[in-house]
Amino acid sequence: SAYGIKIKYPSDWTKKEQVAGTVVAFISPQQSVSDTFQDNFIVSVQDLSTQPMTLEEYTELSVGQIKQFVTDAIILDSSATTIGKQSAHKVVYTGKQGQYSLKWMQIWTVIDNTAYILTYTAEEDNYNDFLNAVQEMINSYHDYRIATTF
Predict the structure, then answer these.
(1) CB of 5 within 8 A of CB of 26?
(2) Tens digits of per-residue pLDDT, 43-89?
(3) Which of 5, 45, 83, 146 is the least buried, fewest Cβ under 10 Å from its Cβ?
């Protein structure tokens, strides 16, 4: 609530607030006893006031960072979208992180010199397992600071 954001999430997911630079992290249920990587959906906020930029500039910077910092990064989709009635950008990509082959979906928007980033991370082979639940979380995203008119 401190960020003016509201998201609905499945009752069997675990919510953790303000962990490692995030506003909130939602952790999927463990799929089996051998499931060593739990899918997650993270909301983070980045203050851009010291280096203001447009959505397009932020997108260029973010995609560059993915290619630079994710081992074996492959961008599968990079496209304009909306989130909470706000113009946004979506990137789906794969890469390696330690022993894991992962697949990410990130959606970000820039509002008043602040970037809002939604990130879904899953093992590449299990990406679709929780994709519907994640899509529902994304669809439920609401930012109370954005004026909406009817």
Answers:
(1) no
(2) 999 999 999 999 999 999 999 999 999 999 999 999 999 987 889 99
(3) 146
